[in-house]
């Protein structure tokens, strides 16, 4: 690479890496403090799931359209705009952190900004890379910055939460976005406007379909999947997602060229991106909830575990770059998903009771038991995320690089979104079902032992029906997570302590949650192993990036000499 090429490409590489870094910081930030949020705001399991799901859903919904925006209007402009929207969302989250509904809104706005940053940051790097070697290294570096973002924000937020300042953690992405904005103005612009138009019908059907699906999955875990409203949500999701496919097939300028999926490598990596990334993030999210919201281990220790997850991704950046360039993605992806699967199955063997000391209090030091499986999970992520991206981009002509990048990001991030959404649906529904089944027996045992308030016998004039009604109410409205986390029920009218949570009811909720998370970890592990099997079979014969370049007779995989009309540096 000449000095001129270096001077032109390096600022773009820096801006793209900082862009995805900020997006990942914002996405990962609430993870380590979910337990603190649940205890502070007293919200149910489904409400807590929406803290992460609102960001992820908004991000996924708009990624494809932002890919089109970047191709038409310029990727540099969209990078700057995405950073600005993310900052607005974080300010809303900061101002409304004491109210869960305001927190949802703020995280959804920040998710829209991230929905621009993920595809655009990658596309502007890939589009201007002067050689296949540089492109492979740049993709690996981009994935490394994504991993750094996932590592630093949970431990920083966890530290603030430990000192009673979890709401202040939203300043972190705001400050980092300011730095990224400065870098973005030095980047080179690029676009690929040929044949690209906004697809409004496709975007609308995708928004409605995905929102209905996420809502039904999340709310159904609390209300029950047999409820009429939940079933209607699934029907609406199916109708609009099918309509999206029909519209995309007929559209002269679709959000997604479905012909891309005729390429076997692209189609297989798309499937494993969804299933495998669901497994990865379901393990991460479930670890957070298991330790934070169930066992109540300190948030800073959960942050340390997120750092442990990302260390392999940081250390393996040079190796992954070489593997992307020289080894068939069949083996890289297979090895990665096997690691993720092993992590899930390992974590499924942990019993929540074993993390408590003799007095029933959380033993913080036991968080280290999650270190080995989380290292495996991190190795799997390092091997898969960059490889998925490289296969997708290298499988299409450069004029479709923006669409391929946006589509791959959509599929990968849809898998990420399903981590908390579907993972939360699994453990919430299992735990709440077991709680409902044993509720009357546990309350009967508690009544025999006698109810207390602040450790003292309850006033005998307090009607037993009122006490039973209060416990039924919190069990039905808040579910197992609320029962496990609320030591004392307060009188809604006066705010004064009303009755202590009976030990029998707390133990029922705790045991139900322990079993539910075991199942969730196991499901995630099995999904990762299924992705490994699909990769080893479906990508048989797939070629490395360097071999593709040789076969195409070009040093860049894509024919750079003929793309002046597609990539227009500013």
UniProtKB/TrEMBL annotation:
It comes from the Bacteria. Keywords: Membrane, Transmembrane, Transmembrane helix, Transport. It is found in: Cell membrane. SUPFAM superfamilies: MFS general substrate transporter. It holds the Pfam family MFS_1. Residues 12-543 form the Major facilitator superfamily (MFS) profile domain. It is a multi-pass membrane protein. The keyword Zinc does not apply. The chain crosses the membrane at residues 9-27, 47-66, 78-98, 104-127, 139-158, 170-188, 200-218, 230-249, 261-283, 289-319, 331-350, 370-398, 410-430, 516-540. InterPro entries: MFS, MFS_dom, MFS_trans_sf. This is MFS transporter. It comes from Nocardioides panacihumi.
